[in-house]
Task: structure prediction
Amino acid sequence: MKIYLIGMPGSGKSTLGNLLALELGYEYVDTDGLIEHSQGMTIEHIFSHHGENYFRQCEHEALQSTVGLKNTVISTGGGTPCFYNNMEIINANGISVYLEVSTPTLCDRLFSEHSHRPMLKGKSKEELYRFVEEKRKEREWFYKKAHYTVRGDDITVKNILTEIKDRLLM
Result:
């Protein structure tokens, strides 16, 4: 079985993905890590030197490379489900879990690290809020295609892990 975690940047995909993989005895893969490894450069460098379209193609290829994996938790980039036929690939090849987090919570989590995220770099708190809210609205349609949705605002990492495990292992 493969579990794909989807959601906005700052929703906890990487943190939860690692912990869930440990809990289940699965491997863990982060598609951003796959991209950085295959391209030999950071996501920030890819965006600044090659642009978003090139990055989205790399992202699609990284996602396709996960299809043959077994017993793996895969954290995807926030935009991954929204391009090409990526959401269909995710749903056809594993269980998808949307980590749904409110805009204020996302902004609280992202503001301290926004200088390291290409699409958020240089934004004030107000600009970050508007940007995150706009992206959430654009992406929600794709995210809602997930097999499961888990609210991630007010509960602990342990509670989210328990909820995900309970839903997947019923």
